Amino acid sequence: MRINIINDCTGLEDSKVESWKSYIDKLAESFESRGYASDIPLKVLESAYATLTFIGEDEIRELNNEQRGIDKPTDVLSFPILDMKNGKLIDKDSEIDFELDEDGNKVLNLGDIIINPDTAYENADKYGHSIEREVSFLTAHSLLHLVGYDHVEKTDESVMIKAQKQMMNDIGLALEDEACEVTDHMDDNIAYPAGSIAKHCGYVSILGRPNVGKSTFINYITGMKVAIVSHKPQTTRTNIRSIYNSDDSQIIFTDTPGVHNPSNKLGKIMVGNSFASAKNADAILFIVDGRFPEPGAVEKKLLDLCRENNKKVVLAVNKSDDVSKESLLPLISAYSELYDYVDIVPVSAKTGDNIDVLLKILEGLLPEGPRLFDSEYMTDQSERMIAAELIREQILHFTDQEIPHGTAVEIDSFEDKYKEGAADEYDRECVVIKATIICEKDSHKAIIIGKGGKMIKRIGTSARINIERLLGCKVYLELFVKVREDWKNNDTLLRSYGFRSEDDN
Predict the structure, then answer these.
(1) pLDDT tens across 175-231, in order?
(2) Could you tell me which CATH number the domain at 200-363 has?
(3) Dihedral of CA 308/310/311/315: which sign?
(4) According to CATH, what is the number of the domain 2-184?
(5) Topology of domain 383-496, per CATH?
(6) What would the 3-class secondary structure string for 117-159 be?
(7) CA-CA-CA-CA torsion sign (20, 142, 173, 248)
(8) What is the pLDDT of residue 39?
């Protein structure tokens, strides 16, 4: 089936809607493959569609009052076409009314979904998750409504909640506790994808101060550039989930922003997200820099957090390739006095030394259960998100002092151009990307652009090469620069650029 998307909301940029489309398309695939509309034949469901329309607060309030007699805005409304109950037709003998598409083929209209993005943003802030997750959840919730799932009766509600969690898990946007709950209640009657079985599966949060090699480790185990790497601290700003699969295990790593003393709202969000990730994880991978002579205040603070939450911790002493093994012994001894670790492993995230040993130890700490993500998945980051980070990486690389951490990158458009007779969505001829670099001062803008535009051309060229490696096709990249003073302390701008707390508290 497919979901047709219409943007009728003034002020909602089409580029933002486009960034949600990949998740919405995956929801449609999940809905179809899991058989939630069991009374609709598969061939019919394959050509079925629903329409998702984004409208403004005033419009949805009027519609809510007209249809439900409630004179206030809401987040989502759904209008089913078929008379169904939990995916089954109430009247088995009733004929399904089909429409004809432009080629004269019969297609089934499941109904309409109406979402108000203003309320969706409020919900995302309230519950501490991303707008992508909120819009996807509202879409999943409404798709189920279209085929008769409901939450009025307690028994019906439990069925619907389970289905919602399964769909969110399928697209990689389940909250960590939701993903575990889906695993605990897996249905024997549901056919799970090939390769879904694993002996151990769970979440490992990576903690450490800035610039100790957390992102380098993630990039090494995934074999691709998922997280950006820089010699400058505080490179990672959001929790990046990366997935490591072995023959019988799956580890979902959360690469957290380095813990530091925040000086603005952005910094507070970064540190808060690191702590929230640690509290929800099955185990902690604590990475420290082997070149430091002793544990610092940051490391002691993180270990106190782990102790408070009774966490299983594996200590990885990184950058072992830069120091002698003899010099590591006093440092390991000092750390041993601070915590009762499951194990301590000297590693090099750059060369891969001892990484296989580390992964085996972590696998043994995870609960038994099937994979939470398809074994082909390597990250929950979309191509758009990684592209934005690869652009920011080059800003970090080519500029100095306070400029790098006063910048953000927003993808304005991400357009796939397909080859003639393309076999699938990855058979692309090229991708056209337009992105805006956000900085805090006019003087920063001048430095980023450079004399005669040389600096921004250098940033763009290097970023384009890395994005082409990621996407496996030609990339046309166009960069713009805008000044947004003190954006790191502006709640509205932080939310717009994708920075929000992951802690529900």
Answers:
(1) 644 443 333 333 333 333 334 445 688 888 888 877 788 878 887 887 655 554 444
(2) 3.40.50.300
(3) positive
(4) 3.40.390.30
(5) GMP Synthetase; Chain A, domain 3 (3.30.300)
(6) HHHHHHHHHHHCCCHHHHHHHHHHHHHHHHCCCCCCCHHHHHH
(7) negative
(8) 76
